Amino acid sequence: MDDHASTPWQALARGRYLRSAWPWRAAGYLAGGALTGPPLLLGLVLLAAVGVIAFPLLALLGLAGLPTGAVERRRLRIVDADPAPTPHRTPAEPGPLAWARLRYREQATWRELAYAVLHGFVLWWVDLAAVAALLGLPLLLLTTPLQLALAADGEVKVLKLWLVTSQPGALAFAAAGAVLLPVLLHPLGALAGARAALTRALLAPRERELRARLAEVTRSRARLVAAFESERRRIERDLHDGAQQRLVALTMALGLARLDAPPGPLADRLATAHAEAGRVLAELRELIHGIHPQVLTDYGLTGALADIAERSAVPVATDLSAALPRLPESVEAAAYFGVCEALANVGRHSGAGRAALTARHTGEALLIDVSDDGRGGADPATGSGLTGLADRVAVLDGTLTITSPPGGPTVLSLEIPCPVSP
Amino acid sequence: MPGEPLKIVLAEDGVLLREGLVGLLTRFGHEVAAAVGDADALRTAVAAHDPDIVVTDVRMPPGFGDEGLRAAVELRTARPALPVLVLSQYVQRSYAADLLDSGDGSGVGYLLKDRVGHVEQFLDAVVTVAGGGTVVDPEVVRQLLRRRRDPLAALTPREREVLGLVAEGRSNGSIARELVVSEAAVGKHIGNILGKLDLPPAEDTHRRVLAVLAYLRG
User: Fold this and answer.
1) What is the ipTM, given to two decimal places?
2) pLDDT, tens only, A259-276
3) In chain A, which residues have their Cβ closer than 8 Å to the Cβ of B91?
4) Which residues form the Putative sensor domain (chain A) (predicted)?
5) Domain residues of chain A, as ranges?
6) Please, which residues 395-414 of chain A have a Cβ atom closer than 8 Å to chain B?
7) B183 touches chain A (CB under 8 A)
8) Cα(A85)–Cα(A82) distance, integer angstroms
9) Would the N or C end of chain A have less CB density within 10 A of its end CB?
10) pTM (2 d.p.)
């Protein structure tokens, strides 16, 4: 209906403006401005008057722009397909005091106040005048015959200027209205576009505010990952210091009991229990290793990657000739689990006979390649492990690339920026 | 238990396990001169007691990283002949390799803690290491043998099995009993292994262990 234009200006530029809903949206927007203006003006004046008497209340005037901004941003949707989100941040702490403190410090609050004052004292008059002149006037002309028919005294004074007493005369005015209406709808649309642009400029978040918010989101995601990582390490330590120690003590006690027990059914049962405890211990060891490999903490990536390569079911040729520097924990963990996942996939799906692992640090970034000679066709979209891995790397601003044409070879590349001072 | 009573310094931060180990070792006639809970105390205890062997955990306070292993490596650097048996929760070459690289590679052991439960095997290892032998946990050896590196690929499955048992510090007689073959057959296997790994054959048991060490260090 509106040719996918998202503002009246775009609609005007693309033609077909008159046949779309845009003229009516523009008129609706301006009329809305004329309606919201008076109560706003009244509110501002009252608030200022009360503030003069009860001085502390004047502080409230500073926040008067907030509801205005909220209403106006919503109203903006009439003529602007792009949503205008709130430019305000959410306070870090609960409570009205923290909220107020943040609001008074935000530039957006003061822009909203400026808008409220501007709208209350000036803009709504402009809106009203525009709607009256550009829409009201031609509509009034168009309805002249009707006005004449309804007039009790048989005459109508059009625009208080011209006296019309006959229907042909009235029809002439109606014809003029019919010509004027489409002509005047154009400046109406242009004005509504200008009003919307002004509103957006003052009430929508600035780029800096958006960037700040994005940075905050990125930081909180990184914090989440770090918290997740430290939780893993806590679980690992708890298992290591608790369950594992007790199990070792248990196998030791069972081992001693076996030495003391005379040959017979008791010794056999002790042997069974001993073997079972040993298996539990081995399983627990693998589990703990999967949660957080201690070798990563103690030896860094170089040692840990050599270790993964050794555990791999498919033989892995490693090129770790240039020892990697110690990197931030989150980078080392992401790289480690990345290679684990990659080699696990090689073992499970690729049908490869050999794999190769290279890792190096350029001074700016960590680069890791895992390749295999398998059948290829790996699709990162289908592997939840790979998706999780990509997410994990993305948190660190890194990238995960997989090339895997049918028939192979599959190459998984990890690049994580992490500058290291020499 | 064969052999003389040994004077042992023990380092393990888990109280339960430490007490258990002390009980186990004293029960079999050894003297635990000191049982400590962290790496610094270990260094002090070794200086004070001049033990026949040090038995230590890898992970210890204050950092709960590889302090115990580092302390062991340091002790052996200062006194290369000091026998050290390290107990670990991890099947990891890096730890074993660091340890075996310390000193001249004799009188060291790297065992998984699980092995403590196999009381006789554990006591054997203590005695072997104290006597200048080298003991590597079978799990670690198994992982190494899985690597299918070229020299090892030349070994037959039986030869790998023998190499694994050699790495545990077992004697020819013990290996023969384990595999139910004659001692002569074991000797022949070991000769073949040393040949394939390009190590000159010798009767010296320490030389045999080099076969495994070569791979741990690789």
Assistant:
1) 0.74
2) 888 999 999 999 999 999
3) 285
4) 29-203
5) 8-205, 225-291, 294-417
6) none
7) no
8) 9
9) C
10) 0.61
